[in-house]
Design goal:
GO molecular function: electron transfer activity; FMN binding; metal ion binding; oxidoreductase activity
CATH superfamily of the largest domain: Ribonuclease Z/Hydroxyacylglutathione hydrolase-like
Mean pLDDT: 96
Oligomer: single chain
InterPro entries: Flavodoxin/NO_synth, Flavoprotein-like_sf, Metallo-B-lactamas, ODP_dom, RibonucZ/Hydroxyglut_hydro, Rubredoxin-O_OxRdtase
Distance between the termini: 58 Å
Keywords: Oxidoreductase
Structural class: alpha/beta
Number of strands: 23
Helix content: 25-40%
Shape: elongated
Number of helices: 12
Organism: Candidatus Methanobinarius endosymbioticus
Strand content: 15-25%
CATH class of the largest domain: Alpha Beta
Protein name: Type A flavoprotein FprA
Largest sheet: 7 strands, mixed
Number of domains: 2
Radius of gyration: 24 Å
């Protein structure tokens, strides 16, 4: 198919793929995404950075052909830099080995193992293993490689193009956005940062200590002041690198707002009434409140708000001596994300309505503590809350607001 490449700077093009229709990715809800691939023309060699899902390469080939036509060069890929082996980054590698069997492939040692396991065509393919500080010269276009294990797979790496100051950061600094525009400044800033925050919350949170160490390493290598642009594998290209770097520092270090995220479900509206009264108490104490109704709201959006909240309020009715099912999914996800690794232990309040013996509050408290939250209050009541009980919910909210403000 015909598709236009977009020139980023002299000899560097975006040749990626729009996935307009994707709505779920690893359980992450989204409104489409891009698989960003980049083509770099040196005087001696041409390199492609990453590729795309199997079956979605027609856009990629169309853009590659357009870029070569714009450069007035014969179509030939000499080098593939594989920053990451996940299928949305490596899925059409076998197409390239068929068309350009002599290309050179650069990746980390962990990527070698993964590529051989994913694709039989690479079982006997000689790959160039790189480590942090290693370089590659295309002829006037020089790359420096940085290993980035567990950001977010063991094989990840960054590639820095020295002459143009472009950091090809792979998944780090990405957003699942599918837009016709390519740059950060072409979209509303609030929209962009919110999507970057969602990406971080769902995919990078468990690696927060590694984020801080990697940023320190970039400084130690003398690269930070040289980065003029960050080109991630999904979403928009950052022309103001410090805007997203500062956000990553904030999220990785656990910097939170005076904010509480409510996560609750309800059966006959009693838990909902409790939640609303607690919200009023918090707001009266000057705390920002975000309400997430788990009957409809998805977990990937929920944890986006948890990332910059000082506390969560978890509400559930008791059903067969346990929390409502929608809470169970969220607790499992909390455990996987390890918010405690961001350097700040978020507070938690557990509440809900029961019919007789209860059980939801106790189970949720145990789950939250296991996920690294500090449960500072619990309150459950029987059946429909009275006005006096709703007043108590308000007072709980107001007291927690005071505690959070006094931190």
């Amino acid at each position: 198919m015909k598709a236009d490449a977009m020139k980023i700077t002299d000899g560097v093009y975006w040749v990626g793929v729009h996935d307009w229709d994707l709505r779920d990715y690893h359980g992450y809800s989204l409104d489409g995404t891009t698989y960003n691939c980049y083509l770099v023309f040196g005087k001696e060699k041409t390199a492609l950075i990453d590729n795309t899902y199997p079956g979605s390469s027609s856009q990629l080939w169309g853009r590659i052909g357009d870029a070569f036509e714009k450069e007035g060069k014969e179509l030939k890929i000499d080098v593939i830099i594989q920053n990451h082996i996940e299928l949305d980054h490596s899925g059409c590698l076998t197409e390239f080995i068929k068309k350009f069997p002599d290309f050179e492939l650069y990746c980390t040692s962990k990527a070698v193992t993964g590529l051989k396991k994913h694709y039989s065509a690479f079982e006997n393919f000689e790959m160039n293993v790189v480590k942090t500080g290693d370089t590659l010269d295309l002829g006037g276009k020089n790359f420096t490689f940085l290993e980035a294990p567990m950001l977010h797979w063991p094989d990840n790496m960054f590639s820095f193009l020295a002459e143009d100051g472009i950091l090809f950061s792979n998944d780090v600094f990405g957003q699942h956005i599918c837009a016709s525009q390519r740059y950060d400044h072409e979209l509303p800033e609030n929209f962009l940062i919110k999507n970057a925050q969602k990406f971080y919350a769902n995919l990078v949170t468990p690696s927060s200590p590694l984020v801080l160490r990697k940023l320190d390493e970039v400084v130690d290598l003398g690269l930070l002041d040289k980065i003029t642009m960050i080109a991630p594998s999904h979403g928009q290209i950052w022309t103001e690198p410090m805007k997203i770097i500062d956000k990553y520092k904030e999220w990785a270090s656990g910097e939170c707002k005076d904010k509480v995220t409510f996560l609750y479900d309800t059966m006959h509206y009693s838990t909902k009434k409790m939640a609303h009264s607690m919200m009023e108490g918090l707001m009266s104490g000057g705390i920002e409140v975000k309400s997430c109704f788990l009957h409809t709201d998805g977990r990937s959006d929920v944890v986006t708000d948890v990332l910059n909240s000082k506390a969560v309020f978890i509400g559930s009715p008791t059903m067969m001596n346990n929390p409502f099912p929608s809470l169970g999914d969220l607790m499992y996800y909390f455990t996987s994300l390890s918010f405690k690794k961001t350097g700040y232990q978020r507070k938690a309040v557990v509440f809900g309505s029961k019919g007789w013996g209860g059980g939801a509050t106790k189970k949720l408290t145990s789950d939250l503590e296991g996920a690294g939250f500090d449960v500072i209050a619990q309150y459950d009541l029987t059946y429909v809350p009275t006005e006096e009980e709703l007043d108590k919910c308000y007072d709980i909210g107001k007291e927690i607001a005071k505690q959070l403000k006094d931190e």
